[in-house]
């Protein structure tokens, strides 16, 4: 429909120009005929833009001597004018359609961001509000109950902090400003510290660490801890009550490996790449997917790899490999 309208506009412009063929400069004719090309590219994209550009080029050739003849030129200058107009029409069509596509993608990403963040914020905020309301009520609570509410508030605040950190890191990645500050790092204490923090989470999911001595790696400690936290947060949220989340480690001559495995719904082969895209979480409903996208970017900046597959017996298993020193 867009193509029909814009090609019709080209014909209409030519009809209007016929009485003024001898009085108008070529540049004015060219500018008028470029207008439908811009409109077709803005409304319909590249294909309608290119079709309209071709129609406008033919129309422009008819305005060159001999007037009314298609692809017949009186002088060499007309050939140059014809070629230049065609190139300008195609370039304008490409630039406009590319810009429109970029704006549409940015708008889609913004919509997904608002939807995802609002979803991820709602649960911890509701938990913090409920726990703080209980503490502020006039009802006397046992010290153990008060400690449990305070721990809950602290853990959910930590979850909100991870979400904000992921969003800031995503912005740094998109701007090309995320570069790890690599220093010698012992991975075992980092894993133990992070796992201990997740063991305090309420609910029926337990977190277990099976790790021996690992060689030192060159890495940014803050970023690697963010990766481990994101993977554990993802595993705990998608695990069934009463099931464990396990973290295991190993190494070889070139790399250090650690895996985070759960007994949740698992990840199908078709979704193994999808879930690493921002704001795309596949069948793992309930998360924005930002954490996994950040984790992949960090691991790859360290020269490592991250992947996911089905855990034997059910569930998902995320495997991370980082190069040894």
List keywords for this structure.
single chain; 325 residues; alpha+beta; Helix Hairpins; Heat Shock Protein 90; five-stranded mixed β-sheet; 8 helices; elongated
Report on this model:
There is one protein chain. By secondary structure, the chain is α+β, with helices and mostly antiparallel strands. Helix content is 58%, strand content 12%. The chain is elongated, with a radius of gyration of 30 Å. It has three domains: 2-103, no CATH class; 113-174, Orthogonal Bundle (Helix Hairpins), CATH 1.10.287.130; 183-323, Histidine kinase-like ATPase, C-terminal domain (Heat Shock Protein 90, 2-Layer Sandwich). The protein contains eight helices and seven strands, in the order αααααβαββαββαββ. α3 runs antiparallel to α4 (76-136).
Outline the fold blueprint.
Elements: H1 2-17, H2 26-44, H3 46-62, H4 76-136, H5 143-174, E1 183-185, H6 187-199, E2 206-210, E3 217-219, H7 221-237, E4 244-251, E5 255-261, H8 290-301, E6 305-310, E7 316-323
Helix content range of the residues, please? Answer: 55-70%
**Helix-strand string:** HHHHHEHEEHEEHEE
Sequence stretches where pLDDT stays below 50 over 5 or more residues: 67-77, 282-286
CATH architecture of the largest domain: 2-Layer Sandwich
Write a short abstract of this structure.
This protein is α+β, with helices and mostly antiparallel strands.
